[in-house]
Amino acid sequence: MRWEGGRRSDNVEDRRGQGAGMGAAGAAAPLLLRFLPAMIRSKTGRVILVVGLLAIFGGKMLGIDVLSLFLGGVATAPGQQGRELSPQEQQSAEFVSVVLGSTEDAWRQIFAAQGDRYREPTLVLFSGRVNSACGMASSAVGPFYCPGDQKLYIDLSFFNDLQQRYGAPGDFAQAYVVAHEVGHHVQTLLGISQQVQEAGRGKSKAQVNALSVRQELQADCLAGVWGSVANRERNWLDPGDLEEALRAATAIGDDRLQQQAGGEVVPDSFTHGSSAQRVAWFRRGFDSGDIESCDTFSSKI
Q1: When you count CB atoms within 10 A of the terminal residue's CB, does the N or C end of the chain come out lower?
Q2: Which are the contacts of 148, defined by CB distance < 8 A and separation ≥ 6?
């Protein structure tokens, strides 16, 4: 994949080596402990304390971090310093920045052709764990997209797992992972993600899983559309690059993952689609280069 020299995105937020921080509650704890005795002795203080606790726990039930609203977001632990990154880590960051820049160019062009404007997402690089608008997540969950803040989150150690654990090496395999998460951002902009969420209300677990599979396969198809446009515009791909992405799609199919875990393959529990489905829909997007080919909700999958 001839990515060197490509335009880097300006929408990369590098949090590697910084840790996830204590969060709002951790940052507020010393302050609360300092004033807690005085608040307990005072009738007004006790009222404020009770109201505050009700607000915090009520907010948690609604998915709202009340403390973060008051403290201005997530706080970083005092004295926590970023570590120096290795040359390989720096190159990986440059690579995903160039891939993200390519997705921006491709989707800006596609949206403009439809008379719309593409709003670019932010890609957050992290190590270990990270706090997002969708909550705290560890690197074990793999790359993910959060519609709440319209950001992609990637621990680049996943690329090592992709090669060593899943047997899918190669830079275009890694680019496919980034483009898949960008596909979820495209779904958010088009209102598809919200429609899927609404369609799943009141449905059984199996029905919700089936909707999730169609949404994930569409993101695979959209990643293929990007790959087609990027290769057409920049002649990025070397022989064998497409096969790298297809191997990655195969490696992370639900049936393959369930087999590797030593369990029974249960289609009703699929959330992303089988290996064959993921390969087929990525290939469909790549071969057509057309977003209209990615209607997984009306098509037989």
Answers
A1: C
A2: 132, 133, 134
- Which tens digit of pLDDT belongs to each residue from 48-82? 555 555 544 444 444 444 444 443 433 333 333 45
What DSSP character marks residue 15? -
Tell whether 188 and 45 lie within a shared domain.
no
pTM: 0.78
Say if residue 57 is in the same domain as residue 95: no
- Name the nearest CA neighbour of 232 among 98, 113, 109: 109
Q: Which two tokens stand for residue 66?
A: 């009340």
Q: Any idea how long the chain is?
A: 301
Q: Do both 66 and 164 map to the same domain?
A: no
Domain encompassing residue 65:
23-71
Pairing outcome for strands 129-132 and 135-138: antiparallel
* Helix, strand counts (H, E) of the chain: 11, 6
pLDDT in tens, 194-251: 999 999 999 999 999 999 999 999 999 999 999 999 999 888 899 999 999 999 999 9
